[in-house]
Amino acid sequence: MSQTVCVTGASGFIAAHIIKQLLEKGYKVRATVRGESARYPYLTSLEGAAERLELIQADLQDIGAYDQAVTGCDAVFHTASPYAVNVKDPQKDLVDPAVTGTRNVLNSCAKAASVKRVILTSSMAAITDEASNEKVFSEKDWNTRSDLKRNPYYYSKTLAERAAWDFISEQKPEFDLIVINPFMVIGPSLGPSLNESNKIYADLLKGVYPTLMNVTWGLVDVRDVAKAHILALETPEAKGRYLVSNETMTMTEVVEYLNSLGYTQYKLPKINLATPIGDKIMKLLSYTQPKGSGSYMRSHIGKDMRYDNSKVKQELGMTFIDAKQSIKEAVEDLFKWNHVEAKHAS
Ligand code: NAP
């Protein structure tokens, strides 16, 4: 394997796993980060990194910053984007870097004649920002409801993905675009940061959620999300968007599972408000939460979440790690990185 590929946002939870798997497969990897190389020992110590990993500094909003990283690359994985539910200024903190950054990276790719395929990490957030008792979501759906006030992270992901597809139709570059739309990505982290999605499990154990709510999560293991990105590169016929998520689990099912694993000495929610009356109470209480979390609660509580993940299975041959296994490893990882203080015998 002599291909050279670029991965943006290399320090991230998902990108680090993409880089690990690419190095294992023999690719040469140019990886963009915002800080000095010394800040990323979990990348530079990966097997194969000494010979085939190069870190290059780039910020999404510095125009032309990705030129050097993508020049000479066969393909580019664009994962960098701010991922935060609660921010001060959604336009400045989420939308601007997500959209400007996507255009910036695609412009650099268009200038580099070598790039044949770009794989963009979008999100289920660009498919829908709400659960639904009627609908089964698929790649055909687009989130049309988010804005700067309602689920602004979802808005940033939708605008960024739209900007990417617009770039392709307007600029007609030499490369094609494949988009990966994962749901809630969980599992072991290669680096020390706590990702927003794994943070839910830390918060469950720490008592941040005193009550069970009627919400359903679509879960997918971070190693599977990385695998889907690479399958999207290695499958010449890959086309369009791929909804990448395994099973759904309700909050109640997740908490029952954590109890069954023996995490009973932690502050897992005990009060059951996953009921029709509980839905009403939780929706009222959502107005006492930080804006991003409150908005999420109002668009998800009391509704089911169903989706069709057959496209990625059929077209890319995707198989998934069992969701309970991912939860188990995500939680063990929280203790490993001291995101949650261990109170049980390991
Ligand atoms: P993450 O760990 O927070 O990674 C985000 C990455 O983006 C980091 O490398 C971060 O760099 C980089 N970044 C943010 N702002 C930047 C800027 N202005 N310039 C350059 N780089 C910037 O999150 P993740 O979960 O791995 O997310 C990766 C991608 O997957 C994102 O596009 C996210 O929207 C998408 N996604 C995530 C999930 C999930 O559940 N985790 C689900 C669906 C989609 P620093 O380390 O320097 O901050």
Tell me about the largest β-sheet.
Answer: 7 strands, parallel
CATH superfamily annotation of the domain at 4-187 and 218-245 and 306-320: NAD(P)-binding Rossmann-like Domain
Order of helices and strands: EHEHHEHEHEEHEEHEEHEEHEHHEHH
**What's the architecture of the domain at 4-187 and 218-245 and 306-320, going by CATH?**
3-Layer(aba) Sandwich
Rg, please?
20 Å
List all distinct small molecules, including ions and cofactors, that are bound in this structure: NADP nicotinamide-adenine-dinucleotide phosphate
Which CATH class of the domain at 4-187 and 218-245 and 306-320 is shown?
Alpha Beta
Instruction: Please tally the β strands and state the result.
Output: 14
Average pLDDT over all residues: 95
Structural class: alpha/beta
The termini sit apart by: 41 Å
Main-sheet strand order equals 3-2-1-4-5-7-11
CATH topology of the domain at 4-187 and 218-245 and 306-320: Rossmann fold
Shape label: globular
* Stretches with pLDDT under 50, minimum 5 residues: none
Count of DSSP H/I helices: 13
